[in-house]
């Protein structure tokens, strides 16, 4: 048995058949070959697989694909067009050496994207920024370069 | 912390910033098969029978294989650290006849879809007859302990003894003797990317290509070759991006061998992606070591003698790393100090838990924790400043290279200068006073420090042989200049996030005076990259791997100059390589760029006599000695007496890893290591119940540090080059994790003083529930849930 799902992924209309038990992360990685979303724990703890669903950050491993009917999904692949220069967030993470193995980076980029949008509406307090950053785990960097990159990014964005 | 971004740390790592890393799970081919494992639910049991009928009948299942089926196809895997008298398990990838820990693989199912493989794996039924379980080292060593291996006389893998000087007299003449048992609990390395393997049958060479997430591609190839009796040239090991490793991926695993077997047997491509729940029980664990320490001290704080008993829990089998961590700990037991009389006994035992392997620090954080906690207690007893007791015992620079009685060689370093630098940066005296003042006001504030030594640049092949490592310690690099002048370096070193590729590129670019963008590093492929004995571990990538790159690039430079001499019609000894071209030393106007020399080398129309066309050079580097990185960590923290929660407020970390090739990468390694050290000190623990069942089965139960747990970290450094390495660089990958637990425990001891029994600071992690004030704990005394000691 399969279900048909219709949604947008990175602005493009997608219609596909998938199993009812298929997770959003499976759909992105296996059906759409968008492998930039990495799977760390499959239980919603590590945050590596974070994507935006209707503009809100969500663990793609905890959502069924079928729950995303009609949703607008954004993944790391959608942050910049092919051939376009890096986004400010990507440039900031690179400049501050805020990734090592890179496995959590997609998750952080999506959380940062969400924060930058919110920050443009109303500047985020440091505590709010730190709190949101705790939603993704990093085992390599010790977080300090990530926090530094995000702080300069949000300050520069105001 | 101030960023040291004079240049991008990883100029070529844009793919990660774009979310474009390519890990094993991102790869695969249409039509590949998928493997799922059936793992033991029992800690210790005989397998009476395995029923695979239902699983085999599931449509889409290609093969169900049990340990008994697999046994004839695989020899026992090699042991990397193999000491005299050591016992072996003979265990293969799948258990045959008996299981010895929860999570041990018992059978594998191969199917056309991963869902089918998992579904079928769940249908495999196993009848077990339980055996008595051994879950602690104490139980393992009991004279009546159940044996894990019937052909072993006891549960001991191996024991070692090191003794020098006159220990008995040292203790007899001591002013003070300090004793303690110091425990580093079992934890897990936990890379965010688990293990993952794709094995593809290769008809062209009747062999297999194994794409795997590892730190040591050549070791994996050797393990597959020796276990499956397949010649090495038929096996190609490829390593794409690695999503963290931390030692966890430093040795070959049974699954890598088994997947190669499946691909060869089914003449197909087979993929296995470890799930997190499997990783908790199927990938190696770390630490789980107790160090019983006695220090004999003079009145002035001089260490007269040291006795240590190192006891390490290997879990259910010696595994590839075997006794290595305990032996490395014994070597590092004296750390930076001059200790004339030493006795060390090490014992490594098996228990019914997941095997422990390599984890960042590899035996050194365990002994550092013991020694630096012990020295703090000694300072307390003698009424000394904890910083001063360390200073009094440091090996001075003029005594270096210094050989400690048990064999450790301290190559270079300015330990007292480093301590002074760090104390001044931290304002140690001021912080101590402020903490005392805060305590007088009823707050639980403390400061603590720990000095450390990190053995790096794992090498001398001769030393590897002497201490039982079944691998050489050399490294080989091939440097090829393309006809365009672009440079390609082929290395056996493997990036896993530490950025070794960026360091190697920088070393090569410096040697050939070209921009770093002109150098490409090729790694992670046994077919194109040079053999390296030991892979990327032991903090050796930059020091040993980088030295071989430097030497090979030096040969390229010689060849460039020789060809340029012919082109410029000038003697070679009047020419120098500078800014990407060869020029006459005293007449820079006469110059030929590297690109023109490279073109000439490949055209070969007019080369000097005896010069071969093309430019490709190879060099090997085998160090004379290890390089000892060192430093000191200083911590201020405050304990909330009501909740026991520890607020680590400030860390200053002083370190010296010799010449820093890439300062930003060094900083990344140190800070990342400190974060793991904070985790080990306060949070990370992998406990088992009395029946050998793991109590941590999901990431929700395993407490990793989060963004808010890391205080501002100040770094200070010296650069004292190692005399044994042409580039002067020492390794740095393990620095942060080594002293951080002891520094935090010492600060906790300072904060809580005599309010708490000292023993609670002698075991990490010191979790919050153990720090709740006793008067508050009594409120819950109707249901005391004291953690097991």
Automatic annotation (TrEMBL), chain A:
Protein name, as recorded = (2Fe-2S)-binding protein
Alphabetical list of PROSITE patterns matching this protein: 2FE2S_FER_1 (PS00197), 2FE2S_FER_2 (PS51085)
Presence of the UniProt keyword Phosphoprotein in the record: no
What are the residue boundaries of the 2Fe-2S ferredoxin-type domain, all occurrences included? 3-79
> What lineage does the source organism belong to?
Bacteria, Pseudomonadati, Pseudomonadota, Alphaproteobacteria, Sphingomonadales
Keywords (alphabetical) are: 2Fe-2S, Iron, Iron-sulfur, Metal-binding, Oxidoreductase
Pfam families according to UniProt: Fer2, Fer2_2
The record ties this protein, via InterPro entries, to: 2Fe-2S-bd, 2Fe-2S-bd_dom_sf, 2Fe-2S_ferredoxin-like_sf, 2Fe-2S_ferredoxin-type, 2Fe2S_fd_BS, Beta-grasp_dom_sf, Diverse_Oxidoreductases
Q: Where is the signal peptide?
A: none
Determine the domain of life of the protein's source: Bacteria
Automatic annotation (TrEMBL), chain B:
List, alphabetically, the Gene3D superfamilies matched: Aldehyde oxidase/xanthine dehydrogenase, a/b hammerhead, Aldehyde oxidase/xanthine dehydrogenase, molybdopterin binding domain
Query: Is this entry keyworded Protein transport?
Result: no
Any keyword Oxidoreductase?
yes
User: Can you give the residue ranges of the Aldehyde oxidase/xanthine dehydrogenase a/b hammerhead domain?
Assistant: 18-132
Which InterPro entries has this protein been placed in?
Ald_Oxase/Xan_DH_a/b, Ald_Oxase/Xan_DH_a/b_sf, Ald_Oxase/xanthine_DH-like, AldOxase/xan_DH_MoCoBD1, AldOxase/xan_DH_MoCoBD2, AldOxase/xan_DH_Mopterin-bd_sf
The superkingdom of the source organism is Bacteria
Please give the SMART domains that the UniProt record associates with this protein. Answer: Ald_Xan_dh_C (SM01008)
Record key words, sorted: Molybdenum, Oxidoreductase
Instruction: Show the PANTHER family listed in the entry.
Output: ALDEHYDE OXIDASE 1-RELATED (PTHR11908:SF132), XANTHINE DEHYDROGENASE (PTHR11908)
Protein name (database record): Xanthine dehydrogenase family protein molybdopterin-binding subunit
Q: Which organism is it from?
A: Sphingosinicella rhizophila
């Amino acid at each position: 048995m399969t279900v048909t799902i219709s949604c947008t992924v990175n602005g493009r209309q997608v219609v596909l058949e998938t199993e009812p038990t298929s997770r959003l992360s499976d759909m992105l990685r296996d059906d759409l070959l968008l492998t930039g979303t990495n799977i760390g724990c499959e239980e919603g703890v590590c945050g590596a697989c974070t994507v935006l669903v209707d503009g809100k950050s969500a663990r793609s491993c905890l959502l069924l694909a079928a729950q995303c009917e009609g949703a607008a999904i954004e993944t790391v692949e959608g942050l910049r067009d092919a051939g376009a220069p890096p986004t400010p967030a990507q440039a900031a993470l690179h400049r501050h050496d805020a990734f090592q193995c890179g496995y959590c980076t997609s998750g952080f980029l999506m959380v940062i994207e969400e924060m930058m949008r919110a920050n443009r509406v109303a500047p985020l307090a440091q505590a709010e920024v730190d709190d949101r950053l705790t939603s993704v785990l990093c085992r390599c960097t010790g977080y300090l370069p990530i926090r530094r990159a995000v702080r300069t990014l949000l300050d520069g964005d105001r | 912390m101030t960023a040291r971004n004079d240049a991008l740390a990883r100029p070529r790592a844009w793919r990660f910033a774009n979310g474009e890393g390519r890990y094993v799970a991102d790869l695969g081919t249409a039509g590949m098969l998928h493997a799922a494992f059936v793992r033991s639910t029992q800690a210790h049991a005989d397998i009476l029978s395995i029923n695979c009928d239902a699983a085999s009948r599931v449509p889409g299942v290609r093969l169900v294989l049990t340990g008994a089926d697999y046994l004839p196809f695989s020899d026992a895997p090699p042991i990397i650290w193999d000491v005299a008298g050591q016992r072996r398990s003979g265990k293969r990838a799948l258990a045959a006849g008996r299981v010895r820990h929860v999570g041990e693989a018992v059978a594998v199912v191969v199917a056309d879809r991963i869902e089918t493989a998992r579904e079928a794996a769940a249908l495999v039924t196993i009848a077990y007859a339980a055996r008595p379980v051994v879950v602690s080292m104490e139980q393992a060593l009991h004279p009546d302990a159940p044996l894990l291996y019937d052909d072993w006389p006891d549960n001991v893998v191996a024991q070692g003894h090191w003794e020098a000087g006159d220990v008995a007299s040292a203790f007899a003449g001591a002013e003070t003797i300090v004793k303690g048992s110091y425990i580093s609990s079992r934890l897990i390395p936990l890379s965010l990317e688990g293990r993952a393997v794709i094995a593809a049958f290769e008809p062209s060479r009747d062999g297999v290509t194994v794409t795997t997430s590892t730190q040591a591609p050549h070791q994996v190839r050797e393990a597959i070759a020796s276990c499956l009796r397949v010649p090495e040239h038929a096996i190609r090991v490829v390593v794409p991006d690695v999503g963290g490793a931390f030692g966890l991926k430093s040795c070959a695993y049974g699954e890598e061998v088994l997947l190669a077997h499946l691909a060869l047997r089914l003449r197909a491509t087979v993929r296995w992606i470890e799930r997190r729940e499997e990783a908790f029980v199927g990938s190696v664990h770390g630490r789980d070591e107790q160090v019983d320490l006695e220090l004999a001290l003079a009145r002035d704080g001089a260490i007269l003698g040291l006795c240590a008993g190192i006891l390490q829990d290997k879990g259910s089998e010696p595994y590839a790393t075997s006794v290595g961590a305990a032996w490395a700990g014994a070597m590092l037991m004296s750390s930076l100090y001059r200790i004339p009389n030493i006795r060390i006994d090490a014992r490594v035992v098996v228990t019914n838990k997941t095997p422990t392997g390599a984890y960042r620090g590899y035996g050194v954080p365990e002994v550092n924790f013991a020694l630096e906690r012990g020295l703090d207690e000694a300072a307390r007893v003698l009424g000394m400043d904890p910083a001063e007791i360390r200073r009094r015992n440091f090996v001075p620079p003029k005594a270096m290279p210094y050989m400690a009685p048990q064999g450790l060689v301290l190559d270079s370093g300015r330990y007292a200068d480093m301590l002074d630098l760090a104390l001044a940066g931290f304002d140690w005296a001021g912080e101590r006073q402020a903490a005392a003042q805060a305590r007088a006001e009823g707050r639980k504030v403390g400061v603590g420090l720990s000095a450390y030594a990190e053995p790096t640049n794992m090498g001398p092949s001769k030393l590897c042989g002497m201490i039982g490592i079944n691998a050489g310690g050399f490294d080989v690099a091939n440097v090829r200049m393309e006809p365009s002048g672009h440079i390609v370096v082929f290395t056996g070193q493997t990036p896993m996030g530490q950025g070794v590729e960026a360091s190697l590129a920088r070393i090569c670019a410096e040697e050939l005076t070209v921009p770093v963008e002109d150098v490409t590093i090729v790694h992670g492929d046994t077919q194109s990259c040079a053999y390296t004995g030991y892979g990327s571990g032991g903090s050796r990538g930059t020091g040993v791997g980088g030295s071989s790159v430097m030497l090979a690039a030096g040969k390229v430079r010689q060849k460039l100059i020789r060809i340029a001499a012919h082109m410029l019609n000038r003697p070679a000894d009047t020419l120098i390589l500078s800014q990407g071209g060869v020029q006459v030393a005293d007449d820079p106007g006469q110059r030929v760029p590297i690109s023109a020399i490279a073109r000439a080398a490949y055209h070969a129309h007019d080369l000097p006599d005896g010069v071969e066309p093309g430019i490709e050079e190879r060099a090997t580097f085998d160090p004379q000695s290890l390089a000892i990185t060192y430093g000191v960590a200083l911590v201020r923290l405050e304990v909330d007496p009501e909740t026991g929660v520890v607020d680590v407020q400030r860390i200053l970390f002083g370190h010296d890893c010799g010449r820093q090739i890439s300062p930003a990468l060094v900083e990344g390694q140190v800070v990342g290591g400190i974060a793991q050290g904070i985790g080990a000190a306060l949070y990370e623990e992998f406990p088992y119940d009395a029946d050998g069942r793991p109590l941590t089965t999901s990431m929700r139960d395993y407490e990793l540090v989060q963004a808010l747990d890391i205080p501002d970290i100040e770094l200070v450094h010296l650069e004292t080059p190692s005399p044994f390495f042409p580039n002067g660089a020492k390794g740095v990958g393990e620095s942060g994790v080594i002293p951080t637990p002891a520094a935090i425990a010492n600060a906790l001891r300072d904060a809580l003083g005599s309010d708490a029994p000292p023993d609670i600071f002698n075991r990490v992690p010191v979790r919050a529930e153990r720090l709740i004030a006793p008067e508050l704990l009594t409120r819950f005394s109707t249901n005391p849930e004291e953690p097991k000691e």
